Amino acid sequence: xxxxxxxxxxxxxxxxSLLGCALGDSIGLPFEGISAQRIGxxxxxxxxxxLVFGNGMISDDTEHSCMVAQSLIASGGxxxxxxxxxxxxxxxWFLTLPAGIGFGTLRSxxxxxxxxxxxxxxANSAGNGPMMRSxxxxxxxxxxxxxxxxxxxxxxxxxxxxxxAERAAQVVAKAGSxxxxxxxxxxxxxxxYFENWMSxxxxxxTLVEQAAQSAMANESARQFCENHNMARGVSGYCYSTLAVVxxxxxxxxxxxxxxxxxxxxxxxxxxxxxxxxxxxxxAKVGKSxxxxxxxxxxxxxxxxxxxxxxxxxxxxxxxxxxxSSRPRYIFFPFALMRNMAFLLIVLVHGFRxxxxxx
Length: 358
Description:
- It contains 18 helices and 2 strands.
- By secondary structure, it is mainly α.
- It is globular, with a radius of gyration of 19 Å.
């Protein structure tokens, strides 16, 4: 394959991963924290953008993936420079008062501001933070296992020091790289995909095997959750989330709309689960595989669809050149204004949940 074709495929995988993450995030956001049963009553038809009069907005899941992309561009893919850049972006992102920030990420941001270096700032948490920003790393470094694993390790330790959080993030990034490389994706091959991390963690090995067996039995994601003590929804524990996203990815790796629909239908941490799945599947299907009727209703600002596409083009180009560059940025006052409006919208949805149907 010639170099131009390789570059085009990489750009498509990176764009598909970031926008797939944004779609999962925005579609799942209105249902966060709700049980699968109530989601079915609130949304009996096909899922669609619905946060703001039939339109969608993103949350911290997509914002973190954008910051990863920006930091990769600014560092030229150098792991240490990436860590330093990402740490500063997290510091300033925290000051924009993002709604729904995870407790582990909150503690890490505070530690960064009082002077902890990026490799000492992680909270002792096994939350979903590192996972939700890892698929795009897999798409970016799909042809370089060593670089991918190094960047994921740095990205994880900035906010989460628990080794389970990093292992989960490594698995998600590996899945993203498999999709970006258009390799065969099959539940039968689960052990070979993730053996580097399963061999040192019996809990991870068990959940990967359970997800693969469920996928081979063609169970739905909701059935899988009900069979594994997640009937009330997927929690914020990284391994619970990972089991569900893998079960969906094994079956729906070439159908982003179905993958996101199944992720949201499980209930619980719907925006994060759908964002992770969207990033993994998006890396394989590319931009052309994203549902257009969802994408045109994603109206966020200043991180608009056009802004994210431009960022992805920058990220793809620095992988080819190996040189750092100044990434697209967000003007701090604009981000703060947007988050104030977003918080009001989230509060309105919170009050709506007090009303039937229950």
